[in-house]
Design a protein that fits this description.
mainly alpha; two-stranded antiparallel sheet; 6 helices; rod-shaped
Length: 124
Amino acid sequence: MAKTIFEELGSKYERQGDYLIPCLTVLAEEEQPIGTWGQRHLDYLKQYRKVTYTNLLTSGRLNTYLADIDRQAQERFERLIEGMKQAQGITERLKEENALEWTGKMNNIRACAREIVGKELIYA
């Protein structure tokens, strides 16, 4: 029996009943921690960008890609919060004088920053 292109490239088949199944493995990848932003992007890829998800997974670059997205998103989130705090004049003095007002404003800023990061990096 003539060799297939798959076999000529050094790959093998495994017989399961009447079928020959190619023996495929995913390349090993360095494990990196993935935070909340990376997990959200992973869910987005699985649901709406299946081809991109499959390509990253089979090439062994998914974990690295998600860790990078997570890092970028966290940095952007922190920069946005600092910029909005300065623009709205939220200081440590306000925190000392009126903690309830400070908490409300900070929650509003965090919600806005979360939405911006989501639209720019996570769900794009």
